[in-house]
Q: What sequence folds into this?
């Protein structure tokens, strides 16, 4: 009997696989701010108060030099005129001595008036008060904000995948006759 022995092997392929790789390099976005602060400038003038106490001091017989000179010059003038009048009146009285004017009357006239004492509060006149008020000067300098955006970036360093196919084992078929060999010649 004739027998065949068949040996076979399938072809085998090998795969070299390199997976794709997608690394991402990112740069974050930034906001840079340049800030100039606002300013508020205030110029405040203090109020001025003027108090004129000349009339108050004049009530207490205390005057400025100019007022003192004027006041006492006028008072002296009045006293001089009164004294001249009194002397003239005494002279007139002495001239009428024959008419019955007595010397006691003339002497009594020179004694002056009886002093009159009173209690009063001084000063009688209030001080003159004036003031000067200036408004507050306000200067406002607005602030500024400068904004600069540095955009973020995403860089991809993509490495594509590869598949290399190679023949790892060749296929083959081997057929052998097993058994008696037939050798026939014709």
A:
């Amino acid at each position: 009997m004739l027998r065949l022995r068949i040996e076979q092997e399938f072809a085998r392929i090998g795969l070299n696989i390199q997976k794709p790789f997608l690394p991402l390099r990112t740069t974050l976005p930034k906001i840079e701010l340049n800030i100039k602060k606002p300013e508020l400038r205030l110029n405040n003038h203090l109020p001025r108060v003027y108090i004129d106490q000349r009339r108050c001091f004049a009530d207490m017989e205390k005057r400025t030099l100019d007022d003192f000179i004027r006041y006492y010059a006028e008072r002296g003038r009045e006293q001089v005129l009164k004294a001249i009048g009194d002397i003239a009146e005494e002279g007139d009285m002495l001239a009428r001595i024959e008419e019955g004017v007595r010397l006691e009357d003339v002497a009594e006239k020179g004694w002056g008036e009886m002093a009159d004492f009173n209690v009063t509060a001084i000063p009688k006149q209030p001080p003159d008060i004036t003031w000067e008020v200036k408004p507050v000067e306000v200067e406002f300098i607005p602030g500024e904000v400068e904004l600069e955006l540095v955009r973020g970036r995403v860089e991809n360093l993509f490495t594509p995948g590869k598949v290399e196919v190679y023949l790892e084992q060749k296929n083959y078929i081997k057929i052998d006759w097993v058994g008696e060999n037939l050798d026939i010649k014709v």
DSSP finds three helices and twelve strands in the chain. Helices lie at 54-59, 65-95, 103-110. Residues 59-126 form one domain. The CA atoms of residues 38 and 142 lie 5 Å apart.
